[in-house]
Structure formats: structure tokens, C-alpha cells
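Support request, please re-run this one:
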Amino acid sequence: MAAQLIWAFTSVIDKIVISKGYIKSPFVYIVLNGAMNVFLIFLLPFFNFEPLKFTDFLIAMLAGISLSAAVTFYYKAVQYDEISRIKIIFQMEPILILGLSFFFLGEILTKNNMIGFLFLLAAGIIVAYKRERRSFHMSRAFYYILASMVLGALYYVSSKHIFNVTGFWSGFLWLRLANFSALAVLLAPSVRRKFAETFKTMKKSIRGLLGFKMVIDFSAFVFANYALYKGYASLVGVLETAVAPLFTFMIALLMTIYFPRIIKEEINKKAILTKLLAILFVVTGIVFINL
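Re-run finished. Output below.
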């Protein structure tokens, strides 16, 4: 839960930075995320950093690449929809994690677990649809979120495998170092140019905000990875994402009311009721999963 509270807060920061145009390209954001992992080098002497078999090393790299790609699609989705709505749609991700965990990790869940997943799926569908001109269609952000969820599920399952074959801190460091793969986008000249231009013109206050965001992001990964180390990938995936919509909704709502120039979401009666109904479905899903 600590990780999700932190990520709810950083999600609002993401929305501010992207919607205000401080960072226009999701690839630039990915470079910043990847560069943050360079500080892990200073932690290596203090922890038992165990070597991995070549196959496990490839799986760790797969986890890193999947996470980087998932975050890229997530940042793209943030450009087109409200952050609270996006967080609720992400409740469908555990269903993908469940399928991959069953086939690759042998995790088997109960009937109540399955009912809980269905409630989470319903919550995602409720907020994914938008009505315009008397017709219903999926929001533009949904397809980016879907890509992000598939890749995120692959990250969870790959990460759980790494924690199954090594200790917590060793697995955590391997997975974080694998995120250096995000820097590969710098091989594209257009990305290098955008990154240089963005960082050169960025205000010092925004640089400080992003630096703060990266630091607390790192602490959130420690909490989230420890939960993954201790539990099933499928259950950890659903419990980690289940509380995020409520936290994000509350933060975004307060920001909209008191700081509308910074971030603004729909606060009409219909929008609020839709999100509250989806959150109710999420809470119901959590209850079934814990029965």
C-alpha cells in the first residue's frame, strides 16, 4: 500500500509535467527514469549481489525492457485522459498477470479470487467508455493503457521469476539495473535531440520536481518488489493496483478544487459518480480476493 500511495502522488506529478508541456515526448521521460538507476552502482558494495544464470539474466533483461516499454505507453496515455480515470482502467492489469502467472509460474487461485478479478475488470470497463454524440466508444487513451498493461504484466511475472531464483536485494538490484535498457532510446538521434532541448529549456523548479519524483519512485519500487518477493505475482499485482485509484482520485480531486490551474479533471456529477462506482467495484474485488 505504501508503494501505491507514493505512485498515486507521482502519477499526479506525471500529469502536471506532461499536460503542461514541460516534457512532450514520453521517450524523454523514459530516459530520465533509466538514468535514475545509475545511482544503484553505489549500492552494489553494500548488498549480496548474486550472479544469475544466463537464462535468468535474459529474463531480468526482459523484465527491464517490458517495464520501460510499459511506462512509455503509460506516459502516452496520460497525454489523452484524466489521471484518475487511467488509474482505474489499470485495474484490468491483474487479469493479464493472472493468466501469465498460471502458465509460467504455476500459480492457481481460488473461486473467490476469480470473482474478485471480474469486479476489477468491470471497474476498468466502466471508466474506459466515453459517450459522445449519443454513441459509446473506447477512450483514445485506452489502447495505450492496454499495451502498457500487457507489458506490465510481463514485467510482474518475469520479476517474480527472478525473486524465485535469488535473494530480495540481489533480485531488486538486477531488475533495477535491467532498467538501464531505457537509455537505449538515446540511440535514436531524434530522441537525443529532444532530450537535450527539453533539459536545456526546462525550469529549475521542474527539474527539482522531477528529481524529487525519481527519488520517491525508487523507494516505491523497494516496497513493491518486496511484496512481490514475498507473495504470488497475481495477488501482489491486484493488491498493488487496487488502492491506487482511490488515492489518485482523492489527490486529483483536491488539486482540481484548490489548484485548477495546475491540474483539472472532470468534477461534474456524472464523472464523480462514474469514478466512485468504479472504485466501489475495485473495493468489492479486493474483498473477494481476500476471502
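The longest strand covers residues 129-132. The radius of gyration is 19 Å.
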